[in-house]
Amino acid sequence: MKMYNPDTCQQATELEIMSSTLPLANSRILELGCGRAWMTRQLAEQFSPKIIIATEVDRIQYKKNLQIDDLPNVSFVYGDAASIDQPDASMDLVIMLKSLHHVPMELMDQAMLEISRVLKPDGLAYISEPVYSGSLNEIMRLFNDEKVVRQAAFEAVTRAVEQGILELKEQIFFDSPGHYRSFEHFEQRMLNVTHTEHQINAELYQQIKQAFQQHMTSDGAHFLKPSRVDLLRRPVG
């Protein structure tokens, strides 16, 4: 397993990668760490899954998600990846989109065990993680340096494969486009989050803004965000 392989990296969106690798139609899907549920909506509306159980550990965001009332095949649940309140072998797919590294490091191995437990035999786990590289990462690490936790997430997946908890089907490396209309848009999306309290004083704020403004064009700031997908399978038998 590799943490990153730029030689095989393709430019694509997360949704394009998922639609080309996962049997989404008529599947029972567990999404761990759904955030604002943007991707949850795309999956629910475009691919006709049987059900999506979308969990979120940030209670503020979870309560906001409960206000969504136009996705009849989605159930929003408060919970974390290390303690999944679903029966054994009940899910066709488990999806984690940039959320494994948010699991406390001491609970990452337990999360991988839980993912394997709730998957049906031969079910798939799609674990997408950001790669610690790129111009956007250079801005983000000024106030939220995730190098250690991203490394820990990769190592947790690697251990799960080495121990036979899950099998590695494929690794996919891709650059997804990211666009922010303005610094205010970036601030709203990345600084003013409810799941993390960033310690940003006036001096650091100006440093972040200056770094971001270097990428501004007439139609906003554009980035390519490197990511890795570890596509895993629950062993049969």
For the secondary structure, the number of strands is 9
Rounded to an integer in angstroms, the radius of gyration calculated over CA atoms is: 18 Å
User: What is CATH's topology name?
Assistant: Rossmann fold
User: What's the tally of helices?
Assistant: 8
Structural class: alpha/beta
Low-confidence regions: none
CATH class: Alpha Beta
Major sheet summary line: 9 strands, mixed
- Give the H and E element order: EHEHEHEEHEHHEHHEE
Task: Label this structure with key terms.
single chain, 237 residues, alpha/beta, Rossmann fold, 9-stranded mixed sheet, 8 helices
Give the structure's gist in a few sentences.
This protein has 237 residues and is of the alpha/beta class. It contains 8 helices and 9 strands.
If you had to describe this structure to a student in words, what would you say it looks like?
The protein has 237 residues and is α/β, with parallel strands linked by helices. It has one domain (6-134, 144-177, 226-233): Vaccinia Virus protein VP39 (Rossmann fold, 3-Layer(aba) Sandwich). The chain is built from eight helices and nine strands.
